[in-house]
Specification:
By secondary structure, this protein is mainly α. It has one domain. The chain has 4 helices and no strands. The model has no long low-confidence stretch (mean pLDDT 80).
């Protein structure tokens, strides 16, 4: 997530259309890997009896956030491109820092 934030911040340094496309491709590749890692970690954090419910609640929250994010970004892109970039950067940094606080559950039995 922190690498995704760095890729987002690099959009400020992109002035040509090809550089922006390259940064977007880099961001998409890194963020897909980060989201897949988060999906695995969130499933493994919960005991088996609560895993399906927790996974469903987290997915519902992600879908709601995606809809809100798309509508908010669409309203800001017409005004300035700085606000969506900074919002994305801030959200990714916060997510990356929160992810560092997740408990280590390796070789532990979750009940």
């Amino acid at each position: 997530m922190l690498i995704s934030a760095g890729c987002t911040f690099l959009l400020f340094l992109s002035f040509s259309q090809s550089a922006i496309i390259a940064m977007q491709c880099l961001f998409c590749g890194v963020s897909v890997a980060a989201w897949n890692g988060i999906e695995v970690v969130t499933v493994e954090l919960y005991p088996t009896s609560k895993r399906a419910t927790a996974f469903g609640v987290l997915n519902a929250l992600c879908k709601l956030a995606a809809v809100l994010g798309s509508s908010i970004f669409a309203s800001f892109v017409g005004i300035t491109k700085v606000v969506p970039i900074l919002l994305s950067f801030t959200a990714l940094v916060c997510g990356g820092l929160v992810a560092l606080k997740l408990p280590d559950t390796r070789e532990r039995i979750l009940q």
